[in-house]
Specification:
The protein is built from 17 helices and no strands. The protein starts with a helix and ends with a helix. The chain has a domain of 123 residues. The chain is elongated and about 85 Å long. The chain is mostly helical and 288 residues long.
């Protein structure tokens, strides 16, 4: 039996035409390509996700009247279309394709104040999804007392990392660890920072039995890398929890050691041991 190569590749050609039109965001060409593929291959698996993405391109995003409306729009324009875009373009290209959609959602939410009951409705998180770090940093600063609230603090740390680097983001990350250790662990493990990833992996392997243990990570990291002292010196929270106090104790010990103040060193070491014997043991190992 001899194959008709043109006939056997017809579906591939029509499918590629449709995907190319969607990739270039050409609504007219996409509609024609969708109709052509559906006419000849009505059961093709490309049709459903392509039709959904074509609907996204045709839709107009207007300013949201309420937080609930914003949440609903994010679900409609972001969550399901992301799976469709991945199925047609692949993981990386899907994110690039969705960026204009995410920017439109963020712009439609810029007038909504931050709501602890609906944080996903705030423009900052939407700008972060779009990779617009500058806009995210600007909008998080409009949230009153954002540095005392874990969600916007995490947003600020992420934007700061991408805009200014890890050293600038360290104080915000440390404060996040003290306020919400689980959120800190999730964020830092997702950041493209190889040196930080290695530290986190080592800490998780040796010391972190639960997500809550990551609250002690800044103090541990300071023991492991004393050069972080100047980077972390501005990190402060109103709660003054034990992990934060331990970090400041380690920073003070580093100064006392350089000054050779033996009596004060002994007293501060006692305080560190009382706060966290395991951290104290790690500190003493580095001084052996």
């Amino acid at each position: 039996m001899q194959l008709d190569l043109f006939s056997d590749s017809r579906d591939v050609m029509l499918r590629n035409d449709l995907i190319d039109a969607l990739r270039s965001r050409d609504v007219g060409a996409g509609g024609r390509a969708l109709a052509a593929l559906a006419a000849e291959y009505p059961t093709d698996a490309t049709l459903r996700p392509a039709q959904n993405l074509l609907g996204v391109l045709k839709a107009e995003v207007t300013p949201f009247a309420t937080h609930a409306e914003a949440i609903q729009a994010v679900a409609a324009f972001e969550h399901a279309p992301r799976a469709d875009a991945i199925s047609l373009f692949g993981e990386g290209p899907a994110g690039h394709w969705l960026r204009p959609v995410r920017l439109a959602l963020a712009q439609a939410a810029t007038h909504l104040p931050y709501s602890a009951q609906a944080p996903d409705a705030h423009a900052t998180g939407l700008y972060l999804r779009a990779g617009d770090w500058t806009a995210a940093e600007h909008h998080v600063n409009t949230i009153p007392a954002w540095r005392r609230i874990p969600v916007p603090l995490a947003w600020a740390a992420e934007a700061c990392f991408h805009l200014h680097g890890l050293d600038k983001a360290w104080p915000l990350l440390a404060e996040l660890a003290w306020l919400d250790a689980a959120r800190f662990a999730a964020l830092t493990q997702a950041l493209p920072a190889p040196a930080l990833a290695r530290l986190l992996h080592r800490y998780a392997r040796e010391h972190a039995a639960t997500a809550a243990d990551f609250a002690w990570f800044p103090a541990w990291a300071l023991v492991a890398h004393p050069e972080l002292r100047t980077v972390l010196q501005g990190a402060r929270t109103p709660q003054h929890c034990a992990p934060e106090l331990a970090c400041h104790l380690v920073a003070e010990l580093l100064i006392l050691e350089r000054q050779g103040r033996h009596h004060d060193i002994v007293e501060q070491r006692k305080r560190l041991r009382a706060l966290n014997p395991e951290l104290f043991a790690f500190y003493m190992q580095t001084r052996a």
